[in-house]
Design goal:
about 170 residues, Alpha-Beta Plaits, Arc Repressor Mutant, subunit A, 4-stranded antiparallel sheet, 2 domains
C-alpha cells in the first residue's frame, strides 16, 4: 500500500514523462496483485499510524494522501533506488549543490553527502557538488529526508574553471 501511495508522490515530483510512465506501469502490476480485503485493512493501519490522511472530496468520495511522516517513511525505503535520469542532451549548464550543515547535525550532514555522491554528483570541494543535469528534485528529496533543507543551496552555472575535468568525468566531451 505504501508503495502505491509513494508511486503517486514519485509521479508528482518527477519531471521526466518517461519516468512517470514507468512508475505507472510498475504500479499497475502491483495493483493487480492486491487483495481488496487486505487493502482495506492496510489503509486502516496506515491511517491509524499517521502515515496517510483522508481528504474528503466535493463529489462525496475520499482520497488517501501521504502525511509528511508518510512521505519521509516512503523516501527512507526508496532512497537507495533513487537515480537521476538525464532529460535529453546536456544544456551546457552545471547544477551546483552547496551546503553548510552545522556540526551538531553531523549524522544528517554525512548522510546528505553520502546520498548526493551516490546519485553521481561530483565533489568540487568538501561541501560543493556539481552535476551536468537537473537534479534539484532529487537533492530536495534527500535534504527533506534528513531535515537539512535550510542548509543547502542549489545554483546553475554556465562556466566552471575546471570544466575540462568535469566534461571528462561525466563523459560529455
Amino acid at each position: 500500500m505504501l508503495l502505491l501511495l509513494g508511486a503517486g508522490l514519485s509521479i508528482g515530483l518527477t519531471r521526466s514523462v518517461n519516468r512517470q510512465v514507468r512508475i505507472i506501469k510498475e504500479t499497475v502490476k502491483e495493483w493487480k496483485m492486491i487483495n481488496l480485503q487486505n487493502l482495506n485493512r492496510s489503509a486502516d493501519a496506515l491511517y491509524k499510524g499517521n502515515i496517510v490522511g483522508i481528504k474528503n472530496n466535493k463529489d462525496g468520495t475520499s482520497t488517501l494522501i501521504l502525511t509528511e511522516y508518510g512521505k519521509k517513511l516512503y523516501l527512507t525505503y526508496n532512497i537507495n533506488d533513487m537515480k537521476i535520469t538525464p532529460s535529453g542532451h546536456w544544456g551546457k549548464e552545471w547544477h551546483l549543490i552547496m551546503f553548510d550543515i552545522p556540526s551538531k547535525f553531523q549524522k544528517a550532514r554525512n548522510a546528505f553527502r553520502y546520498f548526493i555522491k551516490r546519485l553521481g554528483l561530483f565533489p568540487l570541494q568538501k561541501s560543493v557538488y556539481v552535476y551536468p543535469f537537473n537534479c534539484e528534485n532529487e537533492v530536495k528529496f534527500i535534504a527533506s529526508l534528513f531535515e537539512v533543507e535550510r542548509y543547502y543551496r542549489y545554483a546553475i552555472a554556465r562556466n566552471i574553471n575546471n570544466e575540462k575535468e568535469l566534461l571528462s568525468h561525466f563523459h560529455l566531451n
